[in-house]
Amino acid sequence: MSKHTLIGGGTGYIGRHLGKHLSQQGYEVTVISRMPGIKRITWHELEKNGIPSSVSSVVNLTGQNVLDPTRRWTPGFKQNVWNSRVNSTKALCKAISEAPHVCSFVSMCGVSHYPPSPVKVYTEEDKVESYDFMSRLCIAWEEAANLNNNTPKAKCCARVWLWASLMEA
Question: Which residues form the NAD-dependent epimerase/dehydratase domain (predicted)?
């Protein structure tokens, strides 16, 4: 089986580190990006041509950086955040459903669908709630990552809480 992973969001903070780690483990890594380049395909190429035939696994880390303190949360920025997560994930899942050679799919999501609490420790069994923009985003993002039930692929959806860091690992 091919050890070739396609990473949506592979130029971001987590994606860069994951790509480097996978490469060190002997995987071929291709990144989906807005910009063409070496070991990259664009979102347009993905929608037009599908997932490259040598790819066996897909990781979804797509999304506009929401931790940038210089960005204001304008309606336009919120729409970019939504499109970059929900719409990109839908496009990626459509391509996966049309790619029989893809065996596994991992999609990352945030934890903002849990209400803030100074004492509650949440687990994946806890009810998710829509109470603000970020909670609605996370719920829609996870729903977008649902593959067609007829798609025989291993799938994992991981809810990630990311500390903003000034140091790169």
Answer: 6-120
What values do phi and psi take at 105, rounded to 5? -140, 125
Q: What is the pTM of this model?
A: 0.86
b vs e for 94-114, b when ≥16 Cβ sit within 10 Å of the residue's Cβ?
ebbeebeebeebbbbbbebbb
Residue with tokens 């050679």: 101
Asked if the model's pLDDT at residue 109 lies above 80, the reply is yes
CA–CA separation, 57 and 154 (whole Å):
9
Q: Report the distance separating Cα 6 and Cα 40, nearest Å.
A: 9
Q: How far apart are CA 9 and CA 53, in angstroms?
A: 20
Sketch out the chain's domains with CATH numbers.
Answer: 4-159 (3.40.50.720)
Residue 161: which pLDDT band, with cuts at 50, 70 and 90? low
